[in-house]
Amino acid sequence: MKIYANALALSILLALLVACGDESSSSVSPEPRQCEEQSDDCDNVSSSSEKISKNSSSSQKSADKGKSSSSEKNAKESSSSATNKNSSSSVDGDKSSSSVKKEDSSSSAVKASSSSVTPKSSSSEEVKQTSSSDVASSSSVKSSSSVSPKSSSSEKENPWGTDAEWNPFNCNAFGGCLEFTDSRDNRTYKYLKFEGKNSSIYAMVENLNVGDMVRGYKDQQDDSKIERYCYDNDTLNCHYYGGLYQWAEMMQLPSECNAKSCADLIKPNHQGICPNGWRLMTATDFEFIVKSNGNTHGVEGTRSTFGFGGYNTTGFSLVGAGYNWNHSFDELGKSTYWHYPQEGTLGELSSFVGCQGSTTTTICEQSTLKTHGFSVRCVMVE
Predict the structure, then answer these.
(1) Which distant-in-sequence residues (6+ apart) come within 8 Å of 51 by Cβ?
(2) Helix axis angle, 2-28 relative to 65-114, nearest 10°?
(3) Which among 31, 110, 310, 375 could disulfide-bond with 207, CB atoms 3.0 to 4.6 Å apart, if both were Cys?
(4) The dihedral of CA 346, 347, 349, 355: what is its sign?
(5) What is the DSSP letter of 348?
(6) Is residue 340 a contact partner of residue 353, using CB atoms and an 8 Å limit?
(7) Residue 312 Rama label (left phi>0; alpha psi -120 to 50; beta)
(8) pLDDT tens track for 328-364
(9) Residues near 196 by beta carbon (within 8 Å), at least 6 away in sequence
(10) How far is CA 130 from CA 2, 22, 105, 109, 134, in A?
(11) Is the dihedral of CA 107, 109, 115, 116 positive or negative?
(12) E strand segments, the chain
């Protein structure tokens, strides 16, 4: 009876131990699922599950070899399950790290594509190409006319580089130049009195520079405003040499007048784009200036000594402003043309013009297309 009671107690104890083993086994299973979802906690969860498995395994050994081996088997399976899942999560961790590497490589691919470099180029080549593109962009900034005189695209043609060094005039010979400020843009122009035997005129000794710049390949056809060309599409050239204008623009007539006759719209003392109180210079005006102020050098007396092969004894100070001929710039520093306010002899598409080169010795007059871009001089209305 006593033995039976002991056996009964032992059976109850074994049953309790088996029940505990089942609970510990069931408590392990949720952890690996959580581990799959949150890989950062995988190591901690798997180690704790191993401890639980070992505890349950040792309890089962002390109770009964048969049942404990069965429990141990279950524990090992749960442990191996946890280990497998843990290793699986570590694989996932590797995958996630590899995916980070792929992301890095994809970002480098973006850099390569953005720099428009071929895939074969190395990173050092990419840096060189990037720096070269930076140099190119900086050179484009240097060629901009809005930076400074010396960084302009016209640097070679303007060796003086500053207003103080730009001195094509001969004002001192005439007691100083007079000055006039154009109220349209507050630009100040120098002008002189040109005296002949019986009469005199006042004329500007620099080219007109007014209006919005348009690219040289375009026509000046916006009749709502004054448009100008600047040599090489560089406003610095306009600053020094003045603007270049098609005939209809200079005349302030509809742009269609470049393609047809508008002789009936030409007025005496035609103002055109000159400021109020001023008019466009005529062929008669230029012939008068050549003979004015005691000049004995002919047309050479109208050209500046400042790089344009003249004596400038009249003070008229012509400079080699170049021109826009058939929408192409040419002859900066070598020649200058200007439209007169009259049509030419080559039909309704032509205008009458004056011209000078650095070695010209006679008055140059001819008919050319109205669409050429030339300089403008203004004479004061009296």
Answers:
(1) none
(2) 10
(3) 375
(4) positive
(5) T
(6) yes
(7) left
(8) 999 999 999 999 999 999 999 999 999 999 999 999 9
(9) 288, 291, 292
(10) 96, 67, 19, 15, 6
(11) negative
(12) 178-182, 187-195, 200-204, 212-213, 227-228, 278-280, 323-325, 328-330, 335-343, 350-357, 364-369, 378-380
Average pLDDT over residues 233-241: 96
Q: What residues contact residue 49 under an 8 Å CB cut-off, 6+ apart?
A: 28, 31, 32, 78, 79, 82
**Mean pLDDT within 292-299:** 97
Tell which phi-psi region holds residue 315, choosing left (phi > 0), alpha (psi between -120 and 50) or beta: left
The β-bridge partners of 374 are 245
Q: How far apart are CA 109 and CA 211, in angstroms?
A: 48
Q: Which residues, in sequence order, are bridge partners of residue 336?
A: 322, 356
Give the burial class of 234: count Cβ atoms within 10 A of its Cβ; 0-12 exposed, 13-18 middle, 19 or more buried. buried
SS3 209: coil
Helix axis angle, 2-28 to 42-63, nearest 10°: 170
Which has the minimum average pLDDT: 162-171, 236-245, 246-255, 259-268? 162-171
**Residue 106: both structure tokens together:** 């994809």
CA distance 281 to 340: 7
Give the three-state DSSP class for 266.
coil
Distance from C-alpha of 227 to C-alpha of 373, rounded to nearest angstrom: 11
SS3 state at 356? strand
- Rounded (to 5) percent helix, strand, coil in the chain: 45, 20, 35
Q: Is 206 helix (H, G, I), strand (E, B) or coil?
A: coil
Round to whole Å and give the CA distance between 339 and 350: 10
Please provide the average confidence, as pLDDT, over all residues in the chain: 73
Q: Which amino acid is at 8?
A: L
Q: Residues 137-173, buried b or exposed e (16+ Cβ, 10 A)?
A: eeeeeebebeeebebbbbbebbeebeeeebebbbbee
The mean per-residue pLDDT over the stretch 124-150 comes to 33
63: which 2 tokens? 């109770």
Kindly report the backbone phi and psi dihedral angles of residue 292, in degrees, each rounded to the nearest multiple of 5, phi listed first: -90, 170
DSSP 170: -
One-letter amino acid of 340? Y
Residue 90 and residue 265: Cα distance in Å, rounded? 91
What span, in angstroms and rounded, lies between the C-alpha atoms of 58 and 201? 124
Cα 334 to Cα 341: distance, rounded to the nearest angstrom: 24
- Looking at residue 246, its pLDDT comes to 98
